[in-house]
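Q: A reviewer asked whether we had any structural model of the full assembly, not just the individual parts. We don't, so I'm hoping you can provide one. Inputs are below.
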Amino acid sequence: MPELPEVEVVRRGLESHASGRTITHVDVMHPRAIRRHLPGAVDFADRLTGVRIDAVRRRGKYLWVELDSGEAMLAHLGMSGQMLVRDEGYEDEKHLRIRFRFADKGPELRFVDQRTFGGLALSEMVKVDEELLPAPVAHIARDPMDPAFDAREVVKAMRRKHTEVKRALLDQTLVSGIGNIYADEALWRTKLHWARPTDKLTAPKATGLLQAATEVMNEALKVGGTSFDALYVNINGQSGYFDRSLNAYGQEGKPCTRCGTAIRREPFMNRSSFSCPRCQPHPR
DNA sequence: CAACCGCCCTGGGTGC
DNA sequence: TGCACCCAGGGCGGTT
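A: Here is a predicted structure for the entire assembly that you could use as a starting point for your response.
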């Protein structure tokens, strides 16, 4: 569920509630939550203890905190990962995976994850295009909210590919941050079917598609992101409201808000794609 | 090398 | 009530 807008909501929450704080205790209650930290839970906790959080950053759906030790703690929320700021003594969540306590004795930071696709890891920073990134993020493309995002270059690269347009939108090495929800919404806004071949898209169409993706994610960010259930929440456990503004994703059978035709659902990469049969006809 | 497929995992929902 | 099954899905490793 968490795509760029939802991860950005979490980043902002962490920036105001975790930056500048020094970690004193780390409890890893589920090893799978740090499976990408190969040296294991003890090493993870040891290297974080006594370390201060200097900044909280994001690229696409990846989130990381810069530490005064020179490392970064990298997070990916997967489908159901949450970062929660909770007062000490607040009841443990059922799927609490990692708990952080701080020197200021203020609220804890908790990583909660029902479906365990998410996780945390410590990583070293590497320089990519004059920018320091955690090593596992080095191959992730800039997202549309990055000041250095170059839409013209992305359009060129997209039109060079031989694939379906939705696959390209979801390719995090081409443009990052877009997942199934915002891909379907951007395609609906641009009146493109997901299976349209990228190499047959005109440059204006591809440009418009990227613009639509950027706009829909900005609109979602303004209202706190998209939540269908309790799986995506901000650091205080609150849902976002953008699900009320969705035109395609999850709208199977409902009338298209543009033309009234019932929205269809089609299988796509072992999941679903939602689109309007009239506004977004199948490519020939 | 680019494209693509299957797997990782859990629990809420549904149908029998 | 209980069981089997389906579905959600980003990223990664392996295959074509």
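A: Points you may want to mention in the reply: Residues 1, 3, 61, 76-80, 115, 117-118, 170, 172, 179-180, 228, 231, 269-272 of chain A lie near DNA strand C (CB under 10 Å from a C1'). The mean pLDDT of chain A is 93.
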